[in-house]
Structure formats: structure tokens, C-alpha cells
Amino acid sequence: MMAGFRFFFRRLMTTTTPLSGAADASQPDASPAVPSPKGGSAPRRGRGGRTQPTRTRAAARPRHPVLEQLATRHPKLFGAAPLPLKRGIFQNLRTALPELGEEDLKEALAEHTRSTRYLQAVAAGQSRRDLDLQVVEPMAAEHVFHALVELFRRKQRKAARSPEAERATLQDEARQWLGRRLQQHIETTGLSAADYAGTMRTRDGEVQALLQELVAQASAQSARDEAMLRAFEASGASVAAFAEMYGLSVQEAGLILARARLHQQPAPDEPSHPADEAAPAVAGNDAADDAGKTS
Predict the structure, then answer these.
(1) Spatial separation of the C-alpha atoms in residues 115 and 130, rounded to whole Å
(2) DSSP secondary structure string, 3-67?
(3) Sign of the torsion formed by the C-alpha atoms of 22, 28, 32 and 37
(4) Burial class, 196, CB count within 10 angstroms (exposed 0-12 / middle 13-18 / buried 19+)
(5) Which residues have CB under 8 Å from 220's CB, separation 6+?
(6) C-alpha distances in angstroms, 41 versus 28, 47, 94, 279?
(7) Predicted confidence pLDDT, tens digits, the chain (295 residues)
(8) How far is 186 from 268, CA to CA, in rounded Å?
(9) Is the domain of 102 the same as that of 224?
């Protein structure tokens, strides 16, 4: 995992070889517990006044001071809802802000691009921007995928720290969230579910299982759609009449038929460089690649 971080950190900091190929994950609540008169954490009261266990909350880690400066100068890129950074942004910042120390800037960019809010922007597929907020390139599909995977892992870690009574529900919600987001991303890329699963590589067994589940669902859906298209073509009926025959709305019938015809079209060419987790292990860390090496 750390090797992937180092690779991704180096890549964004250089402008030479481009890689091929965004607000659901939340971080743990960092607000301090309310102190009791004796200096401890005040117990919570449940129904009937019964005392409930008090959760231990981690103190919020302060942001790197250089990030505070960058957020003041470039709030759209380093503020509360940051936009994805262009690859090679490190050198641009060094030129624009020579007063910032090189090592401090490396650390600040690494912290920023590992943050949940930055990963959320990458996962949303937002385009990369330069210091003038100009779009310089679209977000690579592989980077979106790896950002989604990392956000899912953070949700799972948060669920693992939750009370046992809530844990299973939170873990299931995390899996459902990733399934929805991956399905949306598959549709965005224009790949079939099978091609997507073969292109977006990951060593995470749970994510692999979810991808295979999506492939199976897509295959079953495709078979149903194609059967409906054959029935429609054999019927000689209008879309409206065909929809009535099967108890569908005209819109639903039209969608099924359009989807079936789409499945019959040749698949788009696969990317020349399939995503490999040995490269961008966490999609957000590409934003600091010029710095050379992460901690």
C-alpha cells in the first residue's frame, strides 16, 4: 500500500509521462467529548435515563501550515471543497510561491491529496485544474476508480470502529454505496461491466467480489433486455402496444429496447494502459507527485 502511495506521489509531481486512464465518505467525528465536572467524559443518557457508553473521539489533527497558506491563496483548489489538481502542480507552486520551502510543500501536497475531501473530488470525476482554475485534462477513469476504492476502505475502517450493534449495518451501507458508485462509473466510461472489471485492477478481495457481482447482474440484465428486443421485433407491434402487452410504460419499454440495441454495438476500444493497483493505489495521491517521495 505504501509503495502505491509513493508511486502516485511521484507521478503527479512530474509533467512527463501521463497516467492512463469525488461526497459520501466521511471522516470520524473529531469533536471533543463534553467534559464532566470531574474532568472525564460525561456519560450519555438513553431512554429512561439509562447511562450509555461514551465513545472515544480522536482529536482533530491540525492542517499543515502550508496548506492553510495555499487555501488562502487558492481557495478553490485547497479550500473546503477542492478541485482536482493538474499533474505537475508542484513545480507551478514552486515558481509561483518561491517563499515556500520545498519539503514543506511536498508534505502539504501529500496531506492534501490523501484527504477525504480531495478523494471525493477525484471520485466525482471532476477535471484537473491549474492554478488559474483552467481545465487542463479530464480525470482518468482509473483515478476515479481508485479514489472510490479508497473512500470505501475509509468507510469500512470507520464501521469497524463503531459500536458492535451498528457495525454490520454500516459495513453493509458502505458496500451498497460502493456498488452504486461503481455502477454509475461503469455507465460513465461506456465500458461493459465485464470490460470495466477487467480494466480496473485491485487487490482488495471485497472490491473484486463486488465487481464480479456487478458483472453478473449486468449479464443477467443484458440477457433479459435482448430477449425483450427479440420479442418486440417478432411482434411487429408499436412500442406503445408492446409496452401494454408486458405491463410496462412506454418509457420503460423504450429504455429496455434502447439498452438491448446498445449491447449489440461493438464495445469501445480498451485503454492502452489498464489500471493496476501497483500504480495509482490511491487516486488522490497523484496531486503531489512532483515532490518525489511520500512519507
Answers:
(1) 19
(2) HHHHHHHHHHT-SSSPPP------PPP-PPPPBPTTSSBPPEE-GGG-EEPPPP-PPPPPPPHHH
(3) positive
(4) buried
(5) none
(6) 18, 19, 45, 44
(7) 444 444 444 445 544 333 333 334 444 444 444 444 444 445 555 555 555 555 555 566 788 999 999 999 999 999 999 999 999 999 999 999 999 999 999 999 999 999 999 999 999 999 999 999 999 999 999 999 999 999 999 999 999 999 999 999 999 999 999 999 999 999 899 888 999 999 998 999 999 999 999 999 988 988 999 999 999 999 999 999 999 999 999 999 999 999 888 877 765 554 444 443 333 434 444 544 434 333 3
(8) 13
(9) no
Pair (21, 159) in one structural domain? yes
Q: What is the pTM of this model?
A: 0.68
Q: Which helix (H) or strand (E) holds 264?
A: helix 250-264
Residue 34 buriedness (CB in 10 A; 0-12 / 13-18 / 19+):
exposed
Does residue 43 belong to any structural domain of this protein? Answer: no
* Same domain? 173 vs 211: no
Phi–psi pair at 58, nearest 5 degrees: -75, 145
Give yes or no: residues 9 and 132 share one domain: yes
H or E element: which one contains 137? strand 135-137
Three cell numbers written together for 126: 471532476
